[in-house]
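Possible race condition, two jobs.
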Amino acid sequence: MPSPLCHALLRNLDLFRPLADAQLNAALQDAAPCRLEAGAVAYAQGAPGAHFFVLLHGCLKVAQVTPEGEQIIVRYVNPGDMFGLACAMGQACYPATVLAVQESVCLAWPAAAWSTFTASHPQLAATALHTMGHRLQEAHQRIQELSNDDVEQRVARTILRLIDQSGLPTRDGVDIGFPITRQDIAEMTGTTLHTVSRLLSDWKQRGIIGGGGRMRIVLRSPAALARLCGHAPLPVDCAACLSCRAGPSAGVVPAVH
Protein backbone atom coordinates (compact mmCIF):
# COMPACT_ATOMS: atom_id res chain seq x y z
CA MET A 1 0.00 0.00 0.00
CA PRO A 2 1.40 3.45 -0.91
CA SER A 3 2.49 5.78 1.88
CA PRO A 4 0.25 8.49 3.38
CA LEU A 5 2.28 10.99 1.33
CA CYS A 6 1.25 9.28 -1.92
CA HIS A 7 -2.33 9.23 -0.68
CA ALA A 8 -2.17 12.98 -0.07
CA LEU A 9 -0.66 13.62 -3.51
CA LEU A 10 -3.43 11.61 -5.14
CA ARG A 11 -6.07 13.71 -3.40
CA ASN A 12 -4.64 16.77 -5.20
CA LEU A 13 -5.04 15.21 -8.66
CA ASP A 14 -8.21 15.63 -10.70
CA LEU A 15 -8.11 11.95 -11.61
CA PHE A 16 -8.60 10.75 -8.03
CA ARG A 17 -10.26 13.73 -6.33
CA PRO A 18 -13.87 12.53 -6.89
CA LEU A 19 -13.22 9.12 -5.25
CA ALA A 20 -14.41 8.45 -1.73
CA ASP A 21 -11.77 7.28 0.74
CA ALA A 22 -12.88 3.66 0.47
CA GLN A 23 -12.73 3.81 -3.35
CA LEU A 24 -9.32 5.43 -3.27
CA ASN A 25 -7.96 2.83 -0.86
CA ALA A 26 -9.32 0.06 -3.09
CA ALA A 27 -7.73 1.63 -6.19
CA LEU A 28 -4.38 1.75 -4.39
CA GLN A 29 -4.52 -1.82 -3.17
CA ASP A 30 -2.19 -3.21 -5.87
CA ALA A 31 -0.19 -0.03 -6.45
CA ALA A 32 3.49 0.39 -5.65
CA PRO A 33 5.18 3.81 -5.38
CA CYS A 34 8.38 4.40 -7.31
CA ARG A 35 10.78 7.34 -7.24
CA LEU A 36 12.83 8.32 -10.27
CA GLU A 37 15.92 10.52 -10.21
CA ALA A 38 16.36 12.98 -13.08
CA GLY A 39 17.45 11.00 -16.13
CA ALA A 40 16.27 7.64 -14.77
CA VAL A 41 14.29 5.38 -17.12
CA ALA A 42 10.85 4.23 -15.99
CA TYR A 43 10.72 1.69 -18.83
CA ALA A 44 12.38 1.23 -22.21
CA GLN A 45 10.92 0.94 -25.69
CA GLY A 46 10.34 -2.72 -26.52
CA ALA A 47 10.36 -3.87 -22.88
CA PRO A 48 7.46 -6.07 -21.73
CA GLY A 49 4.49 -3.92 -20.71
CA ALA A 50 4.49 -5.21 -17.15
CA HIS A 51 2.91 -2.16 -15.45
CA PHE A 52 0.72 0.87 -15.97
CA PHE A 53 1.32 4.09 -14.08
CA VAL A 54 0.07 7.43 -12.76
CA LEU A 55 2.52 10.28 -12.28
CA LEU A 56 2.15 11.96 -8.89
CA HIS A 57 4.96 14.51 -8.98
CA GLY A 58 7.61 15.71 -11.42
CA CYS A 59 7.78 15.41 -15.19
CA LEU A 60 8.57 12.57 -17.59
CA LYS A 61 9.62 12.52 -21.23
CA VAL A 62 8.29 9.97 -23.72
CA ALA A 63 10.80 9.23 -26.50
CA GLN A 64 10.63 6.84 -29.42
CA VAL A 65 13.34 5.59 -31.77
CA THR A 66 12.17 5.17 -35.36
CA PRO A 67 13.19 2.19 -37.54
CA GLU A 68 15.71 4.57 -39.16
CA GLY A 69 17.34 5.14 -35.76
CA GLU A 70 16.07 8.69 -35.28
CA GLN A 71 14.87 9.68 -31.79
CA ILE A 72 11.58 11.55 -31.54
CA ILE A 73 10.14 13.06 -28.38
CA VAL A 74 6.49 12.08 -28.47
CA ARG A 75 5.17 14.02 -25.47
CA TYR A 76 5.72 14.94 -21.84
CA VAL A 77 3.89 13.38 -18.89
CA ASN A 78 2.58 15.73 -16.20
CA PRO A 79 1.27 15.02 -12.67
CA GLY A 80 -2.10 13.29 -12.82
CA ASP A 81 -1.42 11.69 -16.22
CA MET A 82 -1.72 7.96 -16.76
CA PHE A 83 1.05 6.38 -18.84
CA GLY A 84 2.46 3.00 -19.76
CA LEU A 85 -0.95 1.89 -21.02
CA ALA A 86 0.35 -0.88 -23.27
CA CYS A 87 -1.99 -3.33 -21.54
CA ALA A 88 -4.98 -1.09 -22.29
CA MET A 89 -4.04 -1.03 -25.97
CA GLY A 90 -3.55 -4.79 -26.16
CA GLN A 91 0.21 -4.44 -26.70
CA ALA A 92 2.68 -6.82 -25.10
CA CYS A 93 5.54 -4.30 -25.10
CA TYR A 94 5.95 -0.59 -24.44
CA PRO A 95 6.04 1.38 -27.71
CA ALA A 96 8.35 4.11 -26.33
CA THR A 97 10.89 4.89 -23.62
CA VAL A 98 9.86 7.00 -20.63
CA LEU A 99 12.47 8.81 -18.56
CA ALA A 100 12.39 11.42 -15.82
CA VAL A 101 13.08 15.03 -16.81
CA GLN A 102 13.39 15.88 -13.11
CA GLU A 103 12.97 13.99 -9.86
CA SER A 104 9.57 12.31 -10.10
CA VAL A 105 7.25 10.07 -8.11
CA CYS A 106 4.71 7.72 -9.67
CA LEU A 107 2.49 4.78 -8.79
CA ALA A 108 2.74 1.49 -10.67
CA TRP A 109 0.09 -1.20 -11.00
CA PRO A 110 0.75 -4.68 -12.47
CA ALA A 111 -0.55 -4.97 -16.02
CA ALA A 112 -2.36 -8.13 -14.94
CA ALA A 113 -4.52 -5.97 -12.65
CA TRP A 114 -5.81 -3.80 -15.53
CA SER A 115 -9.07 -5.71 -16.11
CA THR A 116 -9.95 -5.71 -12.40
CA PHE A 117 -8.87 -2.09 -12.05
CA THR A 118 -11.09 -0.86 -14.88
CA ALA A 119 -14.06 -3.02 -13.83
CA SER A 120 -13.89 -1.83 -10.22
CA HIS A 121 -13.25 1.83 -11.05
CA PRO A 122 -15.19 2.81 -14.19
CA GLN A 123 -14.37 6.49 -13.71
CA LEU A 124 -10.64 5.76 -13.88
CA ALA A 125 -11.23 3.47 -16.88
CA ALA A 126 -13.08 6.28 -18.66
CA THR A 127 -10.17 8.61 -17.93
CA ALA A 128 -7.73 6.08 -19.41
CA LEU A 129 -9.81 5.83 -22.59
CA HIS A 130 -10.01 9.61 -22.79
CA THR A 131 -6.22 9.80 -22.35
CA MET A 132 -5.61 7.37 -25.20
CA GLY A 133 -8.08 9.19 -27.45
CA HIS A 134 -6.45 12.54 -26.70
CA ARG A 135 -3.00 11.17 -27.47
CA LEU A 136 -4.22 9.73 -30.76
CA GLN A 137 -5.74 13.09 -31.68
CA GLU A 138 -2.53 14.89 -30.70
CA ALA A 139 -0.49 12.46 -32.82
CA HIS A 140 -2.70 13.19 -35.85
CA GLN A 141 -2.32 16.92 -35.24
CA ARG A 142 1.45 16.65 -35.11
CA ILE A 143 1.47 14.67 -38.37
CA GLN A 144 -0.55 17.44 -39.99
CA GLU A 145 1.85 20.06 -38.65
CA LEU A 146 4.86 18.16 -40.01
CA SER A 147 3.14 17.97 -43.40
CA ASN A 148 1.71 21.49 -43.66
CA ASP A 149 3.55 23.93 -41.37
CA ASP A 150 6.93 25.53 -41.84
CA VAL A 151 9.59 25.08 -39.16
CA GLU A 152 8.85 28.33 -37.32
CA GLN A 153 5.16 27.46 -37.06
CA ARG A 154 5.95 23.96 -35.76
CA VAL A 155 8.30 25.25 -33.07
CA ALA A 156 5.84 28.00 -32.07
CA ARG A 157 2.94 25.53 -31.80
CA THR A 158 5.07 23.13 -29.75
CA ILE A 159 6.06 25.79 -27.21
CA LEU A 160 2.46 27.01 -26.93
CA ARG A 161 1.31 23.41 -26.39
CA LEU A 162 3.87 22.88 -23.62
CA ILE A 163 2.89 26.16 -21.98
CA ASP A 164 -0.77 25.15 -22.10
CA GLN A 165 0.00 21.78 -20.50
CA SER A 166 2.60 22.76 -17.90
CA GLY A 167 3.02 26.54 -17.84
CA LEU A 168 3.87 28.28 -14.55
CA PRO A 169 3.35 32.08 -14.29
CA THR A 170 6.44 34.03 -13.21
CA ARG A 171 7.26 37.72 -12.89
CA ASP A 172 8.84 37.61 -16.38
CA GLY A 173 6.16 35.62 -18.20
CA VAL A 174 5.14 31.95 -18.28
CA ASP A 175 7.75 29.26 -17.67
CA ILE A 176 7.30 25.91 -19.43
CA GLY A 177 7.56 24.40 -15.97
CA PHE A 178 10.26 21.79 -16.43
CA PRO A 179 13.80 21.63 -17.85
CA ILE A 180 13.82 21.39 -21.64
CA THR A 181 16.73 21.64 -24.07
CA ARG A 182 16.82 23.01 -27.58
CA GLN A 183 17.62 19.48 -28.75
CA ASP A 184 14.40 18.30 -27.09
CA ILE A 185 12.42 20.89 -29.07
CA ALA A 186 14.21 19.85 -32.27
CA GLU A 187 13.23 16.21 -31.66
CA MET A 188 9.61 17.21 -31.04
CA THR A 189 9.34 19.28 -34.21
CA GLY A 190 11.31 17.28 -36.77
CA THR A 191 14.01 19.88 -37.28
CA THR A 192 17.64 20.50 -36.31
CA LEU A 193 19.27 21.89 -33.19
CA HIS A 194 20.75 24.71 -35.27
CA THR A 195 17.33 25.78 -36.55
CA VAL A 196 15.75 25.75 -33.09
CA SER A 197 18.67 27.75 -31.65
CA ARG A 198 18.34 30.34 -34.41
CA LEU A 199 14.58 30.71 -33.91
CA LEU A 200 14.78 30.99 -30.12
CA SER A 201 17.59 33.55 -30.35
CA ASP A 202 15.51 35.61 -32.78
CA TRP A 203 12.41 35.42 -30.55
CA LYS A 204 14.48 36.43 -27.54
CA GLN A 205 15.76 39.52 -29.36
CA ARG A 206 12.19 40.42 -30.28
CA GLY A 207 11.01 40.03 -26.68
CA ILE A 208 8.71 37.08 -27.38
CA ILE A 209 10.62 34.79 -25.01
CA GLY A 210 12.93 35.61 -22.14
CA GLY A 211 16.06 34.12 -20.69
CA GLY A 212 14.89 31.59 -18.13
CA GLY A 213 18.33 30.17 -17.53
CA ARG A 214 19.87 26.93 -18.71
CA MET A 215 17.26 24.46 -20.02
CA ARG A 216 14.41 26.88 -19.25
CA ILE A 217 12.10 28.77 -21.60
CA VAL A 218 9.98 31.69 -20.40
CA LEU A 219 7.29 32.88 -22.78
CA ARG A 220 6.79 36.63 -22.40
CA SER A 221 4.08 37.10 -25.05
CA PRO A 222 1.93 34.09 -25.94
CA ALA A 223 -0.12 36.33 -28.25
CA ALA A 224 2.96 37.21 -30.30
CA LEU A 225 3.97 33.56 -30.57
CA ALA A 226 0.43 32.57 -31.54
CA ARG A 227 0.53 35.08 -34.40
CA LEU A 228 3.57 33.26 -35.77
CA CYS A 229 1.36 30.18 -36.08
CA GLY A 230 -0.89 32.16 -38.43
CA HIS A 231 -4.15 31.56 -36.59
CA ALA A 232 -4.40 34.34 -33.98
CA PRO A 233 -6.01 37.75 -34.58
CA LEU A 234 -3.98 40.84 -33.83
CA PRO A 235 -4.86 42.29 -30.39
CA VAL A 236 -6.13 45.85 -30.81
CA ASP A 237 -5.45 46.91 -27.23
CA CYS A 238 -2.02 45.42 -26.56
CA ALA A 239 0.86 47.79 -27.18
CA ALA A 240 3.31 45.28 -25.73
CA CYS A 241 2.36 42.60 -28.24
CA LEU A 242 2.51 45.07 -31.09
CA SER A 243 6.04 45.97 -30.07
CA CYS A 244 7.07 42.32 -30.30
CA ARG A 245 7.20 42.66 -34.07
CA ALA A 246 10.33 44.78 -33.86
CA GLY A 247 11.29 44.01 -30.25
CA PRO A 248 10.05 45.78 -27.10
CA SER A 249 11.19 49.22 -26.12
CA ALA A 250 14.00 49.44 -23.59
CA GLY A 251 12.84 48.65 -20.10
CA VAL A 252 9.41 47.45 -21.25
CA VAL A 253 8.42 43.89 -20.39
CA PRO A 254 5.70 42.59 -22.75
CA ALA A 255 2.50 41.60 -21.02
CA VAL A 256 1.42 37.99 -20.76
CA HIS A 257 -2.03 37.25 -22.19
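Job #2 (started ~2 s after job #1):
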Amino acid sequence: MMNEPMQTINKKIAVEYLKFFYPTLRGEITQLAVQDNFAGIIQATINYLKNLLQESKITIIAHHISLMEWLYRNGNSYVKDIIENLFVRSFESMKKHSKVQHWDLLYQYMPVRFQEIYSQQQQQDEIFFCKLCKQKQ
Protein backbone atom coordinates (compact mmCIF):
# COMPACT_ATOMS: atom_id res chain seq x y z
CA MET A 1 0.00 0.00 0.00
CA MET A 2 2.87 2.40 0.68
CA ASN A 3 4.29 1.91 -2.81
CA GLU A 4 1.06 2.66 -4.65
CA PRO A 5 1.41 5.52 -7.13
CA MET A 6 -0.39 8.71 -6.19
CA GLN A 7 -3.63 9.43 -8.02
CA THR A 8 -3.37 12.19 -10.61
CA ILE A 9 -4.64 15.46 -9.17
CA ASN A 10 -7.62 17.05 -10.91
CA LYS A 11 -8.75 20.64 -10.40
CA LYS A 12 -11.13 19.71 -7.57
CA ILE A 13 -8.38 18.00 -5.59
CA ALA A 14 -5.93 20.75 -6.52
CA VAL A 15 -8.29 23.30 -4.95
CA GLU A 16 -8.14 21.43 -1.64
CA TYR A 17 -4.34 21.40 -1.73
CA LEU A 18 -4.27 25.12 -2.58
CA LYS A 19 -6.54 25.89 0.38
CA PHE A 20 -3.99 24.11 2.54
CA PHE A 21 -0.94 25.71 0.87
CA TYR A 22 -2.44 29.23 1.05
CA PRO A 23 -4.40 29.51 4.32
CA THR A 24 -4.64 33.31 4.00
CA LEU A 25 -6.40 32.83 0.64
CA ARG A 26 -8.72 30.05 1.80
CA GLY A 27 -11.86 32.22 1.66
CA GLU A 28 -11.07 33.56 -1.80
CA ILE A 29 -10.13 30.10 -3.08
CA THR A 30 -13.38 28.66 -1.72
CA GLN A 31 -15.43 31.41 -3.36
CA LEU A 32 -13.69 30.94 -6.72
CA ALA A 33 -14.06 27.15 -6.45
CA VAL A 34 -17.83 27.53 -6.02
CA GLN A 35 -17.77 29.49 -9.28
CA ASP A 36 -15.66 26.70 -10.87
CA ASN A 37 -12.93 29.27 -11.57
CA PHE A 38 -9.68 27.32 -11.27
CA ALA A 39 -7.82 29.87 -13.37
CA GLY A 40 -8.99 32.57 -10.95
CA ILE A 41 -7.63 30.55 -8.05
CA ILE A 42 -4.22 30.31 -9.69
CA GLN A 43 -4.35 34.05 -10.39
CA ALA A 44 -5.12 34.69 -6.70
CA THR A 45 -1.99 32.73 -5.75
CA ILE A 46 0.04 34.76 -8.25
CA ASN A 47 -1.26 38.02 -6.78
CA TYR A 48 -0.35 36.77 -3.30
CA LEU A 49 3.20 35.97 -4.42
CA LYS A 50 3.54 39.37 -6.08
CA ASN A 51 2.61 40.98 -2.76
CA LEU A 52 5.29 38.88 -1.05
CA LEU A 53 7.73 40.01 -3.73
CA GLN A 54 7.05 43.64 -2.85
CA GLU A 55 7.97 42.73 0.72
CA SER A 56 11.16 40.98 -0.54
CA LYS A 57 10.11 37.63 0.97
CA ILE A 58 12.05 35.60 -1.59
CA THR A 59 12.43 32.37 0.39
CA ILE A 60 8.69 32.25 1.11
CA ILE A 61 7.94 32.81 -2.58
CA ALA A 62 10.43 30.06 -3.50
CA HIS A 63 8.67 27.71 -1.10
CA HIS A 64 5.28 28.44 -2.70
CA ILE A 65 6.74 27.97 -6.18
CA SER A 66 8.01 24.55 -5.08
CA LEU A 67 4.56 23.65 -3.77
CA MET A 68 3.03 24.71 -7.09
CA GLU A 69 5.60 22.61 -8.95
CA TRP A 70 4.58 19.60 -6.84
CA LEU A 71 0.97 20.22 -7.83
CA TYR A 72 2.06 20.59 -11.46
CA ARG A 73 4.07 17.37 -11.38
CA ASN A 74 1.14 15.40 -9.94
CA GLY A 75 -1.65 17.19 -11.79
CA ASN A 76 -3.69 16.06 -14.75
CA SER A 77 -3.31 17.79 -18.11
CA TYR A 78 -5.85 20.53 -17.24
CA VAL A 79 -4.08 21.41 -13.98
CA LYS A 80 -0.71 21.41 -15.77
CA ASP A 81 -1.99 23.63 -18.60
CA ILE A 82 -3.39 26.23 -16.21
CA ILE A 83 -0.22 26.27 -14.10
CA GLU A 84 1.97 26.62 -17.20
CA ASN A 85 -0.17 29.28 -18.84
CA LEU A 86 -0.83 31.40 -15.76
CA PHE A 87 1.57 30.61 -12.95
CA VAL A 88 4.80 30.08 -14.90
CA ARG A 89 3.83 32.89 -17.32
CA SER A 90 3.67 35.22 -14.32
CA PHE A 91 7.41 34.81 -13.75
CA GLU A 92 8.13 37.40 -16.43
CA SER A 93 6.06 39.95 -14.53
CA MET A 94 7.79 38.97 -11.29
CA LYS A 95 11.13 39.43 -12.98
CA LYS A 96 10.17 42.92 -14.19
CA HIS A 97 8.93 43.98 -10.76
CA SER A 98 11.79 42.65 -8.67
CA LYS A 99 15.31 43.72 -7.96
CA VAL A 100 17.87 41.89 -10.09
CA GLN A 101 19.42 40.16 -7.09
CA HIS A 102 15.99 39.04 -5.86
CA TRP A 103 15.07 37.61 -9.27
CA ASP A 104 18.43 35.83 -9.52
CA LEU A 105 17.91 34.27 -6.09
CA LEU A 106 14.33 33.32 -6.87
CA TYR A 107 15.34 31.75 -10.17
CA GLN A 108 18.07 29.80 -8.38
CA TYR A 109 15.47 28.39 -5.96
CA MET A 110 13.00 27.65 -8.76
CA PRO A 111 12.42 23.96 -9.56
CA VAL A 112 14.27 22.91 -12.72
CA ARG A 113 11.04 21.94 -14.51
CA PHE A 114 9.65 25.45 -14.06
CA GLN A 115 12.96 26.95 -15.24
CA GLU A 116 12.68 24.82 -18.39
CA ILE A 117 9.06 25.80 -19.04
CA TYR A 118 9.86 29.48 -18.41
CA SER A 119 12.81 29.33 -20.85
CA GLN A 120 10.67 27.65 -23.51
CA GLN A 121 7.99 30.31 -23.08
CA GLN A 122 10.61 33.06 -23.43
CA GLN A 123 11.95 31.50 -26.63
CA GLN A 124 8.47 31.06 -28.08
CA ASP A 125 7.54 34.64 -27.24
CA GLU A 126 10.71 35.93 -28.86
CA ILE A 127 9.94 34.01 -32.07
CA PHE A 128 6.28 35.05 -32.06
CA PHE A 129 6.89 38.73 -31.35
CA CYS A 130 9.75 38.89 -33.81
CA LYS A 131 7.38 37.58 -36.51
CA LEU A 132 4.81 40.20 -35.52
CA CYS A 133 7.44 42.94 -35.77
CA LYS A 134 8.42 41.79 -39.26
CA GLN A 135 4.77 41.72 -40.37
CA LYS A 136 4.29 45.34 -39.31
CA GLN A 137 7.34 46.54 -41.27
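The mean pLDDT is 91.
Logs attached separately.
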